[in-house]
Specification:
The complex is a heterodimer of chains A (113) and B (113). By secondary structure, chain A is mainly β. Helices cover 0% and strands 50% of the residues of chain A.
Chain lengths: 113, 113
């Protein structure tokens, strides 16, 4: 039982490049989330998926797209990376949205030059 | 005003000390509350949920005051291993906010020998 896994762990991009961050959970959770964490700050919600087949914007969705591929997988895509997207990205999952504990993946450290 | 505000810290305390963190939230309809712990460069992990009746887990006690819209975390007999950043998390109401989580910026605790 691996919990929540994320790939890659580290990534360096040049401005304008694109990439997809992958996330998978094996806990049969319905809800999945993408957050970003900038130095000295809390986590900010980018997008979430309350259930398979649905996605909704969070607090900071601009510059990102997501896909809930199936119940297990939720990917985050940066179409044209910008230096302002340099951050640590965490994926999380929970049984349902709103009341349950969220379980986090180990994070992806992204630097955009 | 931020939706969730925490004591800015940092807190530097000796081993064995008692330390308390506070967190205020702005949405009176918020439905659930949590404290997460985050070690340096790692993912957040649930420390404890916070209930109106208060709850205790060993050396940790969490309290919720809905009337004043704040939650607190008390750590007794601090250990070196308690050194971490503590994140206050508030989930919004399902009806208007889809239960999304808002994270505080965190309070950093360093316990010294």
């Amino acid at each position: 039982n691996a919990g929540v896994t994320q790939t890659p762990k580290f990534q360096v991009l040049k401005t304008g490049q694109s990439m997809t961050l992958q996330c998978a959970q094996d806990m049969n959770h319905n809800s999945m989330y993408w957050y970003r964490q900038d130095p000295g700050m809390g986590l900010r919600l980018i997008y979430y998926s309350a259930s398979e087949g649905t996605t909704d914007k969070g607090e900071v969705p601009n510059g990102y797209n997501v896909s809930r591929l199936n119940k297990r997988e939720f990917s985050l895509r940066l179409e044209s990376a910008a230096p302002s997207q340099t951050s640590v990205y965490f994926c999380a999952s929970s049984e349902v949205t709103g009341t349950d504990t969220q379980y986090f993946g180990p994070g992806t450290r992204l630097t955009v030059l | 005003r931020k939706e969730v505000e925490q004591d800015p810290g940092p807190f530097n305390v000796p081993e064995g000390a008692t330390v308390a963190f506070n967190c205020t939230y702005s949405n009176s309809a918020s439905q659930s509350f949590f404290w997460y712990r985050q070690d340096c460069r790692k993912e957040p992990k649930l420390l404890m949920s916070v209930y109106s009746s208060g709850n205790e887990d060993g050396r940790f006690t969490a309290q919720l005051n809905r009337a004043s819209q704040y939650i607190s975390l008390l750590i007794r007999d601090s250990k070196l291993s308690d050194s971490a950043t503590y994140l206050c998390v508030v989930n919004g109401p399902l009806r208007t906010n889809a239960g999304k989580s808002t994270f505080g910026d965190g309070t950093t605790l360093t316990v010294k020998p």
